[in-house]
Amino acid sequence: MGPRLPLMLKDAGLTAFVAAALGIFIVGFRTVDVSGKGLSFDYHLADLAVAVAVIFVGRLGLSLASHGLRWPAIALGAIMIVAGASPMELPSGFLHWFVALGGVLLVIRAIWPWASEAVTAAAHTPSGTALGKAGARWLGWLLLAGAVLMPFTPIADQKTMDLGVLILTYVMLGWGLNIVVGLAGLLDLGYVAFYAVGAYSYALLSTQQGLGFWSVLPLAGMVAALFGVLLGFPVLRLRGDYLAIVTLGFGEIIRLILLNWFDLTNGPAGIGSIPGPTLFGAVFAETAPAGKQTVSEMLGIPFSGNHRLIYLYYIILVLALITNLFTQRMRRLPVGRAWEALREDETACQALGINPTNTKLTAFAIGAMFAGFAGSFFAAKQRFISPESFVFIESAIILAIVVLGGMGSQIGVVLAAVLLIGLPEWFRDLGNYRMLAFGLAMVLIMVFRPRGLIAHREPSIRLHPAGSGGGG
Amino acid sequence: MTTPLIDVEHLTMRFGGLMAVDDVSFTAQPRAITAIIGPNGAGKTTVFNCITGFYKPTIGRLTLRGGGGEFLLERMRGHEIGQRAKVARTFQNIRLFPGMTVLENLMVAQHNRLMRASGWSVLGLLGFASFRRAEAAAVELARLWLERIGLVADADRPAGELPYGAQRRLEIARAMCTEPALLCLDEPAAGLNPRESAELNQLLVSIRDRDGIGVLLIEHDMSVVMNISDHIVVLDYGRKIAEGDPGAVRSDPAVIRAYLGTDDEAIDG
Where does A117-179 show beta strands of DSSP type E? Predict the structure, then answer.
């Protein structure tokens, strides 16, 4: 350690210097508008000093860890975590996070070789393999039980329930897109268009024709599926990148139509006062509109604003589960296997007499149908929709959920949705740095799990029962 | 002579200025192995691609007389040739579904039959017993073929993990699971060692004799071609230069010229 320590200190010093030189313009001072006197500088040199100190210590710790000196690195990381978590006076709340997260990363880096070695060794023992398989099987049921019971737990305040509904909506969209991208291998960058079609179907039919949520729901799915077929028919002969570009364009076309067809969609102003879903004809409101009954009257319970949220939560939970069960079932049918075969090799499929166009169309239409269901739920939940909600970034997030989850993995989609939708909401305190954390999380997943969180593929049919040997 | 299984008449395929196949006619009999040989670039794979619908021939007629009737292959869309005319093929560079298991590869090959049995997925989704029976029968057919190619133990492994020789055999089994009238094999012995190519010979002979399927074979490995072929068609520069049984083709001067070149005297003269 002796002769290398000066080198490491020099290296850490150089890194800190570069960080300081770059940071002084970005973090060091800002121009602020002093009322009536023009611009003046607002200095944040203390922030910069803390950041540079963290970078110095962090770099030193990383060098130590990479030279196998784990304990000093872990000690440095622990000091950073304690410093970050302590009530010490720092110029901004973000710096606490910065220091603590830096410490966490350093500790992870220091124990990484140990941990990965131990996990690999454990996974190769027979009991480890069995545990891994059981874990994969039970994880889904555990998540389901947690999701069903969540509204009755003390954590279920309005914020958590809202977040739960949001996450489940993305889980459903992720599962829907998983059919198109994960199973059939068709890169669809305009998935949000079908979501928009579903949302506007319900919004228009309910506000103009007076139809209820439950009668429109299947219709909205069918309309979205029809749009899927209409788009799919001319473009599904394209492959890979070309298909991606065309679907991207389709998503924008739908958004622009919604924005500009003023007579039908009310343009950028959107459609408001969309009725929410009813429970056996009863509405969720404090006072019922003429000729209707409220749910609290029907059930004889006192009114609470939370009931509506709990009801919405269970609707989207059931819709998402239907999507999942349907997909699981389709995967085991000939058409599902043909989807996966198309993803693997389209030429070979054609040689086996499989009609590629029809097979892709079914995947596209079914994926679009579930987006349509989710869209009409979204409209019923928000009670107001506008083209603003259906921009490209939504498609990108849904696609990111599918890809990060592990293409084709159902549980992976859930984990990725919790990570990508849940974490940014929980980390709202980070303010503008939220998106930074989002990006960092994505980069980390892609570095450590390049094939997605859950890359394991379960065969759709087996000759030998699972676990009876016959290969890995 | 019996009616031929496939009748290739005046097949011509032009790519811009390149005449890849030039007025080639030949027939292949049912329950027989017909080999197409020739030097590299002779147009063998182009003939295959025309027969299996990957290319539309510039000129020519391709008539297939299988169990299902008579089909004019040049008028059918790519997948219909496999689906209705029952022509199956393998590829020069293996095209399995590498991420799917061995068994799944063989199930995908039975797609059209299973789609009908699953009522285009509706009956299958509802779990009808008739579909479950059809699926069990499909698994049974797959198991039969896995036994014949010696891969039963590997049925649940991803196909991409198999060794090269096993992948070649699996691709042939997958083509056979479509229950074809004509099996087209594009260089099945490429990259196999002598023992594996002897096994391949046995497999192809059993497909001809036991299953009664007509086989069309492109091959460079003469130990395969000369041992098992009933009829050989020789192509060079897109033209047919010879045709006949192995003995006749082997001693044909035009074939020797194409493979070994012309000697100096012939050029001088």
Answer: none
Strand arrangement, sheet containing B87-89: B87-89, B182-186, B214-218, B33-37, B231-236, B239-244
Distance to chain B for A361, nearest Cα, Å: 13
* Burial bucket for residue B198 (CB in 10 Å: 0-12, 13-18, 19+): middle
The answer to whether A399 and A195 are in contact (CB under 8 A) is no
Instruction: Give the residues of chain A that fall short of pLDDT 50.
Output: 469-472
CA distance B71 to chain A (A): 15
Identify whether residues A244 and A98 lie together within a single domain: no
* 8 Å CB contact between A57 and A76: yes
Does A462 contact chain B (CB < 8 Å)?
Answer: yes
Q: Fold for domain B1-86+181-269?
A: Rossmann fold (3.40.50)
Residue of A228, A188, A240, A233 lying closest to A346 (CA atoms): A240
Please compute, for residue A158, the number of CA atoms within 13 A of its CA located in the half-sphere on the CB side. Answer: 5
Point out the residues of chain B with pLDDT beneath 70: 1, 262-269
CB of B121 less than 8 A from some CB of A? yes
- Answer whether A32 touches B (CB < 8 Å): no
The reply to whether A187 and A92 lie within a common domain is: no
**Contact (CB<8Å) A340/B99:** yes
Which of B101, B111, B178 has its CB closest to that of A338?
B111
Query: Which residues 197-256 of chain B have a CB within 8 Å of chain A?
Result: none
Domain assignment present for residue A133? The answer is: no
State the smallest CA–CA distance between residue B78 and chain A in angstroms. Answer: 6
pTM value is 0.79
**Could you tell me if the ipTM is greater than 0.90?**
no
B122 contacts in chain A (CB < 8 Å): none
B194 touches chain A (CB under 8 A): no
The SS3 call for residue A210 is: coil
Indicate where chain B has its CATH 3.40.50.300 domain(s): 1-86+181-269
Q: What is the CATH number of the domain that holds A248?
A: 1.10.3470
pLDDT of A216-252, one tens digit each? Answer: 899 999 999 999 998 888 887 777 788 888 889 999 9
Per the structure, the complete domain to which residue A285 belongs is given by: 142-448
**What digits encode the pLDDT tens for the residues B155-173?**
888 999 999 989 999 999 9
Residues A105 and A155 in one domain: no
> Judging by DSSP bridges, how do beta strands A38-43 and A29-34 pair with one another?
antiparallel
